[in-house]
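G., the chain you wanted modeled:
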Amino acid sequence: MPTSPTVANWELGLRLREHRELTGLTAVAAAKAAKLTQPYVSGVEGGKLKITDVRLKALAKAYRLSEESYAGLIELRAAAEQRSWWQGYSGLFTDDTLRFFGYEHGAAAIRSYDGGLVPALLQTEDYARAVIRGAGPNIRMADVERVLEARLIRQHRLDGPEPVRLTAVVTEAVLHQQVGGRAVLAAQLRHLAAVVEQRPSTVDIRLVPFTAAAFHALGGGAFHLLDFPSRRLPTLLWQETVTSTSLIDHPVRLREFDSAFNQAVEHALSTADSLRLIRQFAKELA
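Predicted structure as tokens:
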């Protein structure tokens, strides 16, 4: 998998939390022993804050870590310090969104659901530009091209020696919603079919038809479940609504969305039938 500083920092925090819990220390006690603050220790464990060599050494001492365990943490900290492409867009996105870009970049597999739009990783440039412009007051018109640029860079994860495995479930609404107009939508649908045909082992698209019965995800916002190559890292959920976005790692919420995604797949057409319907609509729009 491509190296992601965000994922490395997250794994570093999780390992530190595991070591703390093994010693029987609370976050407050660990902070006191290492002469740090509890919010800082918790922030590091949650992957939201980075840790310096000096402070990492102080925590390692408090947890009485072996040289081997400490060396593994040092290696992760070095990876977390690497510069990432999304850092260049820090003025355009929230901290949570930038963290999501980092997790997405380091993910091994992504399961996406969207009830009205083609997922970002599969959007054409013209379609994506129309979607971004449609965000209205959430994005300044002067920033549209930069936001678009970041979206297109994200799509590089579909290629390369270790591409992310993407399974996208969308509703039939995406075939009708003329984002950018008929010509833009037609080109988008042709692109969608082409991407799946060119990457059959790593990209799958499943279409839920209007004839399907109600299912849990219907009517909700878009969401994405991210799985990682390391067994130490749990699945993450990225949820999007009109007014908010959020990264979620709570086990109960993850189980709910995992179930919702699987239910959506059950209501969806096969890949072959989905592609057939997508191509049909593309021809009708042309």
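The first strand starts at residue 109 and ends at 114.

Shout if anything looks off.
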